[in-house]
Amino acid sequence: MNTVLNKPRILTGDTPTGKLHLGHWVGSVENRVKLQDRYDCYFIIANIQAFTTRAERPEEMRDNVMQVAMDYLASGIDPKRSTIFVQSEIPAIAELTQFLSMLVPFPRIMRNPTIKDEIRDKGLGDNYPIGFLMYPVSNTADILTFRPELVPVGEDQLPHLELARETARKFNQLYCAVDPQTKDEDYIKAGGLFPIIQPLLGRVKRLVGTGAPGKNGQLLKMSKSLNNAIFLSDDSDIIRKKVMEMYTDPKRIHKTDPGCVENNPLWIFHETFNPDQDWVKEAEAHYRKGQIGDVECKKKLVDVLVALIEPIRQRRLVFEKDPAQVIKILKEGTERANAIAEETLILAKRAMQQDYFGKRQVKYNK
């Protein structure tokens, strides 16, 4: 077991594509904040992965790293209890990515549903760099480099985690002589280097956005690129505007018309964020009977979301005024992360018999 003060380790993070929104909050960030006292937490800002579709916008990606870091800190991730670090500043991850890529067949990458969805949703066709296809392997290396036991993620990341689990099993069997019949939870006891990680899903697997459904009639996932997101940095006026424009039941013309609660973002948000669930159940019953209007329910949701987001926004403003402090936190976290990453790389190369020049000794506690 990898521990600090007997705490099992967690690794998770985000590709920096901009500010974090409520989907990130319920999908993983909320979990991360709660887990800090029980786990040795490492949170990666995966900026190299952002280059897979944004290589021509380096300045934007540099800014996005800062945006994500500020959102982490404002959300309650405490750098005294957790480690926040930048992917590109951990050389061992890149080297381990190269080694692990030899264990992953190309057809396995192309079966990854997340890769297929990205190619389709972003209209990439055949016009994507080889680095884009390396994204799942890079993600696997991000995880295995820190040998965590748990990985808090949103549902869309599960295919990547399954690849990490497969790759860890293959490495342990091939280079650490672990019997393929070994149970996942026993791989380390059996002499493996990499634990077979377990995912930890947030309380909401996939938060819908504020907008209308897609062409297939399904509500779209909250996303910055779809312009249907409420951000953790939005002020009360912006939240009010977004909620009041929120898609509800298109068949409900007048507030006295019966309304549909199912597949309705207004009520999905109330069920997700409103702490007064007795009010929600009662209001939903009135809504179905045409006894309560959209406007009244939206105003209630505004109050709920402002109560959640405003404290986060206020803490964020402090970091926005002191970017040097954010850089200092990232630098210190990256230094801590590098120590573990270098240890893992040495152990991996030793297992693969590729440690030629007697690099420094490491103490590996299984």
Task: List the keywords.
366 residues, four-stranded mixed beta sheet, Tyrosyl-Transfer RNA Synthetase, Rossmann fold, 2 domains, 14 helices, single chain
Description:
With 366 residues, the protein is α/β, with parallel strands linked by helices. The protein has 14 helices and 6 strands. It has helices spanning 22-35, 47-54, 58-75, 91-101, 106-110, 113-121, 130-133, 135-144, 158-175, 236-244, 265-273, 277-288, 294-320, 323-351; strands spanning 3-4, 7-14, 40-45, 82-86, 150-153, 198-201. The strands form 2 sheets. The protein has a 4-stranded mixed β-sheet. Helix 2 (47-54) packs across helix 3 (58-75) and helix 8 (135-144) packs across helix 9 (158-175). 39% of the residues are buried. The mean pLDDT is 91.
Largest sheet: 4 strands, mixed
List how many beta strands DSSP finds: 6
Question: Shape, please?
Answer: globular
What radius of gyration results from the CA coordinates? 22 Å
